[in-house]
Design brief:
The complex is a heterodimer of chains A (194) and B (538).
Chain A: E1 2-10, H1 15-28, E2 32-36, E3 47-55, E4 69-74, H2 77-81, E5 87-96, H3 109-117, E6 122-125, H4 127-133, H5 141-153, H6 157-168, H7 173-193
Parallel strand pairs in A: 1-4, 4-5, 5-6
Antiparallel strand pairs in A: 1-3, 2-3
Helix pairs in contact in A: 1-5, 1-6, 4-5, 4-7, 5-7, 6-7
Chain B: E1 2-6, H1 7-17, E2 20-25, H2 32-43, H3 60-72, E3 76-82, H4 85-88, H5 90-99, E4 105-111, H6 125-131, E5 135-136, H7 141-158, E6 162-167, H8 168-171, E7 173-178, H9 202-214, H10 216-225, E8 230-232, E9 239-244, H11 247-254, E10 262-266, E11 268-269, H12 273-281, E12 286-290, H13 296-302, E13 310-312, H14 327-333, H15 360-372, E14 379-381, H16 406-416, E15 422-427, H17 428-445, E16 449-455, H18 473-479, E17 487-490, H19 497-509, E18 514-519, H20 523-537
Parallel strand pairs in B: 2-3, 3-4, 4-6, 5-6, 9-10, 9-12, 12-13, 14-15, 15-16, 16-18, 17-18
Antiparallel strand pairs in B: 1-7, 5-11, 8-10
The chains are: A alpha/beta (194), B alpha/beta (538).
């Protein structure tokens, strides 16, 4: 088993929480893991990404090579496209379709979404709307995205849910349940469109 | 025990487990998490059972000196900084190599090749060579953890400070680390055997320096025999590859066994002469040097092997001259084709970082820009921190930013040259790091400058660490000699815009040194404090 994942978004959106949950589940599975993060200046509303590598064999490089990623998970559609050169030719893009508009020259949204759709393997979803539908707060939008990526992660669905429960356990049952609902909403959406 | 740790956290845990007595540091990406991790660990032992000194220092020089004092008393000390912090502490660092140590002393420099969050990509290995002390450059998180313990032991055995150098991808990447179950006890307090070693009068310093020079072969021997540097003869030893630190990982990501290269993997300096000689003896005709940072080894090795051996690396264009390594550039350098991939997406535009919405620096710049426009040729000298982002859209407010504290003294130099208005913009933490002495220069010359301290009560850019002068900035400024009536305080909020502008105008028009403090808490730390207060109220 080997999965190379690029997590993308805008500073402050919460991509590292997604990485934390996947990492927790991967460790329980006994997988090797490396995760390179961005700290410092770029966290202030700039583009951020994290390279997450999982494997049943030891992992050498902390960074994913270009053309090596199995999956891009992004909380923002243009940010997903920023890393397509890292994606395998048949890799997956799982991204929120809602733009984060903090720059004056954001390209035409229709065109951004069309570019994502050009990739045969993609899931585009409105993570905030799905979180709301599931009765979860807006902060759980990243868990919807995580749920939508589960079918491509190579980690069992139930084990991912157990990981979510462990990560949020100290915040109380209510927070655990709303995050689990958010993950399920994303998962069900991805299964329905795949 | 197994833990998922950042490289920085592995170093911190390694230091705790090695019986650390004090960590001394000023925050700086990518080194900050080392000290934060130790602070958290100490705070979790509310019974005081983990007594490690871990308060932030005012700057890297004070940190280095305090660590040397801890070492003088026989205890283990760690100093952490980003690469440019090495410049700030260089005086203490270079001379610590001359005094030597009593308790183990590790200087941790976290370099930032590709300048993700820095103004240059200087390579700290030069400093180890410069000071003639051993340097450790772990290639993964586990090695980082283990090498801290070894580094303290080495430091105490060879009586020398040890530099440990990591880079961004090591500092800020997580992996599983196996740790010891019990930390080692801390050293008991003990005086140096020979106090004269720490009194660097020329007569004593000459003796110490001669000892340091004489110790060099022992340092090399340690590099050759400690087991961190490894040489593997290949089936085709005419092709050799030398890696340092995490360069090894990028090589192994791509390497195929049938290539049959000899591989020399270096994680400890000075360079292991015997291993390099062996590589040559085995018939190396070309050596590819894969190192993160500047071409330090590539230059050194040219003087160590016969001149007909071809040395390849960053200087020859086989690897990029600048920036951090990647699995991609190393792949091409060892003669493999790039992996098939998509072209990068042309539609994508840049998304530069920006000041947070609601940040006090924004209101400070809004007022400053309006006032500055009233003068024909204003010059605003910026400094290092979140507010450096004032150089970008929408403010375009500053005309210089060089290094910690330079705003104050560059404004002074500009004023000396005849510039008016000459304005410095500096954060509270940067001011206490390196701005105070510059302000004293301004006062002594009665320089016609305005020093605008944008005081957000924290060290914001690195994530909100304590700021050394919080609550005392006015006292510090008047204490340095700024006239009390020219130390003004404003609250940067939109509703106060007219008042702030008036204060700025008055102080610009005052022909002498004045300080305007724009004080409002960082909204990131404010959010955290409000959340904590809410939790406490429950």
């Amino acid at each position: 088993m080997k999965k190379d994942i690029i997590l993308a978004g805008v500073g402050g959106q919460g991509i590292l929480s997604i990485a934390t949950v996947i990492g927790e589940a991967a460790l329980q599975e006994g997988l090797y893991l490396k995760q390179a993060e961005v700290h410092g200046m770029s966290q202030r509303g700039g583009d951020v990404q994290s390279n997450l590598r999982l494997s049943s064999e030891p992992i050498m490089s902390d960074l994913i090579p270009m053309g090596g990623a199995d999956l891009i998970i992004s909380l923002e559609p243009m940010e997903a496209l920023r890393y397509v050169q890292y994606l395998k030719p048949d890799g997956w893009i799982v991204t929120s379709c809602v733009p984060f508009l903090n720059i004056p020259n954001y390209p035409e949204l229709e065109e951004v979404l069309a570019r994502v759709k050009e990739h045969k393997n993609h899931v585009l979803l409105d993570v905030e709307a799905l979180a709301k539908e599931a009765g979860a707060p807006a902060q759980a939008a990243n868990m919807v995205l995580l749920g939508a990526a589960i079918p491509m992660l190579g980690i069992d669905h139930d084990k991912m849910l157990a990981g979510v429960a462990r990560i949020f356990a100290r915040k109380g049952e209510q927070v655990v349940n709303s995050n689990l609902a958010a993950v399920e909403a994303g998962y069900n959406y991805a299964i329905s469109v795949r | 025990m197994k833990h998922l740790l950042l490289g920085d956290e592995a170093i911190a845990q390694g230091a705790i487990d090695a019986g650390l007595s004090g960590v001394y540091a000023y925050p700086g990406t990518p080194s900050t998490e080392i000290t934060e991790y130790i602070q958290l660990a100490v705070s979790r032992h509310a019974d005081g059972s983990l007594p490690i000194h871990c308060r932030w220092a005012a700057n890297e020089k004070t940190a280095m000196e305090a660590a040397l004092g801890m070492s003088y008393m026989g205890k283990r000390a760690l100093v952490c900084m980003k690469h440019v912090g090495m410049n700030v502490c260089a005086d203490a660092f270079m001379n610590a190599a001359i005094t030597g140590v009593n308790g183990g002393l590790i200087v941790l420099a976290a370099d930032d090749p590709s300048m993700h969050s820095s103004q240059n990509e200087q390579d700290s290995r030069f400093y180890a060579k410069f000071a003639m002390i051993p340097c450790l450059e772990p290639s993964n998180q586990q090695e980082a953890y283990d090498m801290v313990r070894y580094g303290f032991e080495l430091s105490e055995r060879l009586k020398t400070p040890v530099l440990m150098r990591v880079t961004t991808r090591m500092a800020h990447s997580r992996a599983v680390v196996e740790t010891m179950s019990e930390p080692m006890p801390q050293n008991a307090m003990s005086m140096p055997e020979n106090v004269n070693h720490f009194i660097l009068l020329p007569a004593f310093a000459k003796r110490n320096y001669a000892e340091l020079v004489a110790a060099q072969p022992a340092f090399v021997k340690e590099s050759e025999t400690a087991g961190h540097n490894t040489y593997t003869r290949g089936a085709h030893p005419e092709r050799a590859i030398l890696t340092t630190g995490i360069g090894y990982n990028y090589l192994m990501e791509n390497y195929q066994e049938e290539m049959g290269c000899s591989i020399l993997r270096i994680t400890q300096y000075p360079l292991p002469v015997a291993l390099i000689d062996q590589m040559v003896k085995d018939g190396a005709r070309e050596i590819l040097v894969v190192e993160e940072g500047q071409p330090v080894v590539e230059e050194l090795i040219r003087g160590m092997v016969p001149s007909d051996i071809q040395i390849k690396g960053r200087l020859t264009g086989d690897l990029p001259r600048m920036g951090e390594l990647s699995p991609d550039c190393v792949r091409v350098a060892i003669g493999l084709k790039p992996l098939p991939k998509h072209d990068s997406e042309k539609l994508v535009v840049g998304r530069p970082p920006a000041l947070c919405q609601g940040c006090g620096h924004r209101d400070m710049y809004a007022a400053l820009n309006e006032v500055a426009r009233e003068y024909p040729s204003p010059r605003i000298f910026g400094d290092i921190g979140c507010y450096t982002l004032g150089a970008l859209s929408p403010f375009h407010a500053i005309h210089a930013c060089v290094e910690m504290g330079a705003s104050v003294t560059m404004a002074k130099g500009a004023a000396d040259a005849g510039q008016h208005p000459a304005i410095a913009v500096i954060g509270d933490s940067t001011f206490t790091h390196s701005g105070m002495t510059g302000l004293l220069d301004c006062v002594n010359a009665n320089a016609n400058v305005v020093v605008l301290i944008s005081d957000n009560l924290t060290t914001g850019m690195t994530g909100g660490q304590d700021s050394a002068g919080t609550g005392r900035l006015e006292q510090i400024c008047t204490g340095l000699g700024v006239a009390a009536e020219h130390v003004r305080v404003v609250v940067p909020l939109p509703k106060n815009m007219e008042e702030i502008k008036n204060v700025l105008r008055e102080e610009i028009d005052y022909p002498g040194t004045s300080v305007v403090i724009a004080r409002r808490e960082c909204i990131q730390t404010l959010k955290r404090h409000l959340k904590a207060a809410k939790k406490a109220a429950k």
